[in-house]
Specification:
The protein is mainly alpha-helical. It contains six helices and three strands; from the N terminus they run H-H-H-H-H-H-E-E-E.
Amino acid sequence: MSSDVSVRELITRANRLLASGDLANARSIAQQAYKLNKNDPDVLVLVSKVITDPARQHNVLQQALEIAPTHREARQRLVALDAPTPPAVPPLKPRSFPVLPILAGVFGVVALLVVVGILLSRSHPDGSATEPTAAVALQSTVGTVPIVVASAPTNNRVSVSPTAPPTATLVPSVPPPL
């Protein structure tokens, strides 16, 4: 019976060492306990904890269950060992924030708003233009039919060469109905 008590003490010490992460010393104590009692299911479960080969762990746990078929820890460890391992999930790659497309969109919206603002500021609710415009009409020496050449704001000057036969006359233009 005294060897039975020392086996229990060795199992307790080895489990404490495993809990603290000291696998080498826990393995050494498990070997001592195994030499003292190879048929103790608790010793076999301890041995399964200190070996790293899954096939050997499986065999040792099977031995423990042959000795004690209702040994809870041996059965739990064997079930966990035989459970299929989920496929390794690759680490997620950090996604870069799409700064360039967002900035392009913001600048596009701002440009659109500026253009709309300019267009809206040039017309009054009654449809007339804010800047008076004039049409340039040329009178030929042969006839008096005015021909509209271009429309320009009134602050622009139209110059006609004195050597040219036609004369330039500024005629206010009426904007077309919308």
